[in-house]
Every structure is written in C-alpha cells, then in structure tokens.
From TrEMBL:
It comes from Thermosporothrix hazakensis. The keyword Cell membrane applies. It is found in: Cell membrane. Keywords: Cell membrane, Membrane, Transmembrane, Transmembrane helix. Coiled coil: none annotated. It is a multi-pass membrane protein. Pfam families: MFS_1 (PF07690). InterPro entries: MFS, MFS_dom, MFS_trans_sf. GO terms for molecular function: transmembrane transporter activity. The chain crosses the membrane at residues 20-45, 52-70, 82-103, 110-132, 175-195, 226-249, 255-277, 313-332, 380-400. PROSITE patterns: MFS. This is Transmembrane secretion effector. Residues 223-408 form the Major facilitator superfamily (MFS) profile domain.
C-alpha cells in the first residue's frame, strides 16, 4: 500500500511514527469511553441528575488541581516514562469498570474514582506529551508533526462516536470500555518498543523546579504573554457555545437529522484543516498560519447567531460554518502548539504547557455557567452574539500583538 505524500513524509522518523500510531489508536479509544461513562451512569447505575453532574464535573477538576504539578514533573522526570505510566495507569483504571460490572459490584462511587484518576493521568499525559514531541523531531519538522497528530484527532472525531455506538450496542457500555483500556496499552507499547531513547535533560539552574517558573517564562516573552491572554479569553468566550445545540434546536428549528449532519461537519472540517496544514507549513510561517486560523475561526463563528430560523438555507449555511470554522481552528491550534514548542526552552516546556493548559481549560467551566445564567435572562442568541463578537475582536487584536513579530 502506497501512502499519500503528506503521510509518507512523517513516517520517515521511526520514533515519531510509533508515537503517532499509538496516539491514533488511543484517540479512537477515548471516544468510546467518553460515551460509555455517560451511558454506564444513566442506564447501568440509573443515577440522578445531581450524581450525574458530579460525575461530569470530576472530569474537569484535575485540570484545576493538578496542572501545575504535572508541569513540574514533565520538566524533571523522564517524559517518556511519564507517558508510559500515564498510559498504563489509565488502562488499569478503565479495566476496573467492566471487571466490576462482571462481578456485580459496579457502583457510582467506583465510577467517580475512575473518572477522577483518569482525568489526573490525562492532564499528566497532555502536558508531558507536548513537551516530549520536540525531542523526537527537528525544529523544522514540528509543524508537520503537529499537523499529523491533529489529523489523527480529526479522524477519531469523525469515526470515533460511530465506533463507540456500535461497540456499546454489541457489548453494553461497561464492556465497551475494554477497548479504550486496550488502546492505552497499545499506546504504551508503541512508546516502550518504538521510542527506545530520550534526549538527556539539559542542566537546570537552581530553583528552576519551582512551579511558578512556567508563569515567569510566559511573562518573560511578550509573544507568550499575548498568546496566554488570547487563549484564556478566547476559551472563556468560546465556552458560551455550550448553548450551541439548544440554539440550533429551539431558535433555528433544526431537525435531528440536520443536527447530526451539522455536528459531523465539525469533524470533517478538522480533518480538512489538518490536511491543509500539512501542505501549508512548507510555504508559510507558523505565526502567519496561527493568525489567519484564529481570525477566520472567530469570524466564521460570528455568523451563527446572525442566521435566521426556519429557512431551508439555514442548515446549509450552518454546515458550511461548522466546516470552515473547525478547519481554521485545526490550523490555528496546531500552529499555536508549534510556536510554543519552538519559543520555550526545553527545561521549561512542561511547566509552560501546564500553565496554558490550566488557563485554557480551567476558565471554560466558569464561562459555561455564566453564559447559561445570562441566557436565562436575555436569551441564547444575544449571549452567542456577544461572545462571538468579543472573540472576533480578540482574533483581530492578536494581529497587532507581539505574536505577529515572532519570526517563526
């Protein structure tokens, strides 16, 4: 079988190819668990809405509590070892759910513990993973590597939910989680046998282990400061789109079939963006791709709350908005990660990743609650309109920020 050129190029690096293979399998497995956990709670344990809300909140809690510590570890412990232990730990935890279901002692308390601990390991893996990639490829290959990893995520976003639905239908939700557990073992095996060595950590100055070193490093670079501000505020504004589906159903009167097609356009857009990025990185700077991706993404999203309801054309426009919006976001996201990896010294990379991970994901729950509360008073459309306008202003501001002056 002959791979397309944009895939074949990335396979030239053996270590990266193994990492990419493991993460592709793991990304599909994660979609299975995301759906399975919700269905186990609803249909196997018959939990009440309060218990379900606790379960969902436990997924976000590790980001707030554990990100800083994960960053310190990622800068002072072998990142390869952290990835291995995170994969092995997640596999072991997920195996507990089908085992408990088979034994008849599956309880909501067990599910709470599994979700919380898997969330902790997810944070550890995410922080170490982005810091680890620059040790596998050259600086010039970072953009290409990130585009390929984004491609796997996009494929998983498109096909993962369908695969999850089939497995849950055949095996029931608790036993479908076996596949995600096995996917983490595959990821661990790829790292263990495919990546045999890791670059020796650079000598670190005394006191660099301080958890605040990541914040200091962000403050030291004007471009990183601007990027941190943008990431935080954009995430806060973007969290209002938790109201997106209610808006489509209640105000635009989109049918269930059309809703499914519109949502699927997001995955197709992310896939398209990842493929385009693999070609664009050879011609344009990462900073240019980041700026254009951010501006197009925020600009296109502003069209959502401006659409009229009950028009046949509305569904077509929504499909196009979702496609272009997610394609541009995929380009922005991979370019932002590449810029961060190239700007930050290796000894601070884990902590800087942790800080930005905390800013982006920690602020989102607050934005969701605030958007929901305001929507009760003024309606969903005004909330989406205001948040989209602010996001577009932020995307425009980024063009005049120190980020634009970075020559990468």
């Amino acid at each position: 079988m002959k791979f397309p050129a944009f895939l074949r190029k990335g396979l030239l690096n053996r270590s990266f190819a193994w990492l990419w293979a493991g993460q592709t399998v793991s990304a599909f497995g994660s979609h299975i668990t995301a759906l399975s956990v919700a269905l186990v709670a609803q249909f196997a344990l018959h939990v009440q809405s309060f218990e379900y809300s606790i379960l969902m909140s436990l997924e976000a809690l590790p980001v707030l509590l554990f990100s800083s510590l994960a960053g310190v570890w990622a800068d002072h412990v072998s990142r390869r070892s952290l990835l291995l232990w995170a994969d092995a730990g997640r596999a072991a935890l997920l195996f507990l759910v089908p085992l408990a279901a088979f034994s008849g002692w599956l309880r909501i308390e067990l599910l709470y513990g599994v979700v919380l601990l898997v969330g902790v390991l997810n944070v550890l893996f995410a922080v170490a993973y982005q810091a680890f990639l620059p040790s596998l490829v050259s600086e010039e290959q970072l953009a290409e590597g990130n585009s390929k990893l984004a491609l796997s995520d996009a494929l998983a976003e498109i096909l993962g939910p369908s695969l999850a639905g089939v497995l849950i239908q055949l095996l029931t939700a608790p036993f479908a989680m076996l596949f995600d557990a096995c996917s983490y073992l595959v990821s661990a095996a790829c790292i263990l046998f495919g990546i045999r060595t890791e670059a020796k950590p650079e000598a670190r100055e005394e006191g660099a282990g301080n958890a605040f070193a990541g914040w200091r490093e962000i403050w030291r670079f004007p471009a990183l400061r601007a990027l941190a501000c943008y990431v935080t505020l954009r995430s806060f504004c973007g969290s209002a789109f938790v109201l997106y589906i209610p808006f489509l159903i209640d105000e635009l009167h989109v049918s269930s079939l059309a809703l499914g097609i519109i949502i699927s356009a997001g995955g197709a857009g992310a896939l398209l963006g990842s493929i385009l990025l693999s070609r664009l990185v050879a011609r344009y700077r990462s900073v240019s791709l980041l700026l254009w991706g951010a501006l197009i993404h925020t600009g296109v999203n502003l069209l959502n709350p401006l659409l009229p309801g009950s028009l046949a054309l509305t569904s077509v426009l929504l499909f196009g908005i979702q496609l272009v919006g997610d394609a541009s976001y995929a380009i922005y996201s991979a370019s932002e990660i590449t810029l961060r990896q190239r700007l930050v010294a290796d000894e601070y990379r884990g902590r800087v990743n942790a800080c930005l991970h905390l800013l982006e994901n920690g602020i989102a729950p607050l934005g969701m609650v605030l958007a929901g509360g305001i929507a009760r008073s003024v309606g969903v459309r005004p909330v989406l309109l205001i948040s989209s306008l602010v996001a577009l202003v932020l995307g425009g501001w980024l063009w005049f920020s120190p980020v634009r002056r970075v020559r990468l």
